[in-house]
Write a structure and sequence with these properties.
single chain, about 170 residues, mainly alpha, YdjM-like, YdjM, Inner membrane protein
Length: about 170
């Protein structure tokens, strides 16, 4: 999937997760939480040097890309575990907001990429590709529709939480 679809997916996933975890209620915590959700939605593509995350972390991106390839380690359970581990090292009043926001975004990214023709290697280093039974090609009109649906879902969930009324 393309970056804009991942952005919408990360925002929608963070808003949905917020319903379940009784997430942040103060505006500053909400901004950090949803910002982390958006960041998390782009972070797994640091293995692709031309992605947003890849361009922001050029040296790391090139190293990860050459060492592991695309949609391997950063699209696996190992990456989720690493996000949890690093998040648990944070000591700030926003630690929980960052952790759960990042997780919502990263998981949404993996789910969306599993809905593409290439799928993901979720069990990396085991080389088995996981792909949803319903999938689409990256950049297709179907992906554009998915992005639009995710945007509507995100707005609806955010409106339900009264984010727009604060």
């Amino acid at each position: 999937m393309k970056g804009n679809t991942h952005l919408m997916g990360g925002l929608a996933a963070a808003a949905l997760a917020n319903q379940w975890i009784a997430g942040p209620t103060l505006l500053d915590h909400q901004l950090i939480y949803y910002g982390a959700g958006i960041l998390g939605s782009l972070l797994p593509d640091l293995c692709h040097p031309n992605s947003w995350a890849g361009r922001k972390t050029k040296l790391v991106s090139k190293l990860v890309s050459k060492t592991f390839g695309h949609r391997t380690i950063t699209h696996s359970w190992l990456f989720i575990a690493a996000v949890i581990w690093v998040s648990n090292l944070l000591y700030t009043s926003y630690s929980t907001d960052i952790k759960y926001g990042l997780l919502a975004g990263v998981i949404s990214h993996l789910i969306l990429d599993a809905c593409t023709t290439r799928g993901i290697q979720f069990l990396y280093p085991i080389h088995i590709r996981f792909r949803s039974p319903i999938y689409t090609k990256t950049g297709s009109s179907a992906e554009t529709a998915i992005s639009g649906i995710l945007m509507i879902a995100a707005c609806a969930l955010l409106a339900k939480e009264h984010i727009f009324h604060i």
